[in-house]
Amino acid sequence: MSHGLPVKVEYVRTKNLNKGGRTMTHQQYIIRRKLNIVELSEQLGNISEACRKLGVSRQHYYDIKSALLEHGVEGLLEKARNRPRIGNRVAPEIEERVLSYCLEFPTHGQVRVSNELKKEGIVLSPGGVRSIWMRHGLEVRKLRLIRLEKWAKEEENILTENQVRALEEAKEEKESRGDIETYHPGFLLGQDTFYVGWIKGIGKIYQQTGIDTYSNVGFARLYTEKTAVSAADFLNDRVLPFFDSYSIPLLRVLTDRGTEYCGIRENHPYQLFLYLNEIEHTKTKARNPQTNGCTERFNQTLLDEFYKVAFRKKVYTSLDEIQTDLDEFLNDYNTRRTNQGKHCKGRTPMETFKEGLDLCGQYIHDREEVNKEAA
User: Fold this and answer.
1) Percent of the chain having pLDDT more than 70?
2) Rounded to whole angstroms, how far apart are CA atoms 209 and 17?
3) Domain regions of the chain by residue span
4) What is d(CA 107, CA 147) in angstroms, rounded to the nearest whole number?
5) Is the pTM higher than 0.85?
6) CA nearest 249: which of 180, 188, 298, 181?
């Protein structure tokens, strides 16, 4: 039984050369291999034995035999495979027109684009428009708006009125969902008043909450009243000293439209405090608290991870006791607890804050240069 493999190898090897001793072409080699099967079966007088020694099936032998009888040696050549059908795709010029259209009107849906292009004599179904978008990663409006922003930034092109309006609407929508653009620590502080609850012997407890929207560094102080004085005192006692310790300014504050934050400057302590410290004031959209979503999420974190635990472990008799434990929690939150925010990405808020200080210096320097040029 051990002589079977050497016979196969020797037989094929002796036939692998042309008469001149030159190596066969690929097609010649294929023909020679197929003829080997037929010739070996004739030599052995047994088709099954020949197929076993050469490692092929009997059906393969009969296919070769049939091709020889019908077409001769040429029937043993490899047949060219049919070319695959190219998928139905629109002409390049139509695809380019769709891409240029969605650059000018990035908020239009696929049905609107299809209808508008028909006016230009371009017949393309909504599904065809979407297929083009998917090939270029533009299947949703957000991606088309990002493409427009990138195009305007890189090419320094002048935006049309429609493009400007689309970008402004996208910005408002992002803010309504709580997606706030912030570029460095101190660029924007979210502030809110959070009602903690009522405790016997203390009364109602309100929390002034603040969070740096770039680094998610959080601040909180407790009060027994909800007034403009307490809102201003919170900034003066907790927030501004922190930013001053790193020699960076607080540029803007985002609050809701509560009476503790809004009023006539001359008669309103909070508004007057912002004016004296040159801090801009931005208000959330009416009846849309998610605009200040970063602060709302921080309030929820304090409620779930501090208050719900602390009030079950200890009976508080004064506001100072609660504030002491709250400060310990805030220190842990800012320096040890990892944060999954947009800029933190798994780092702690303080790590993110310190790494962003260079961005703050660069932003302030660029703003001063612009002001000098304008003057």
Assistant:
1) 80
2) 88
3) 4-76, 92-176, 189-374
4) 12
5) no
6) 188
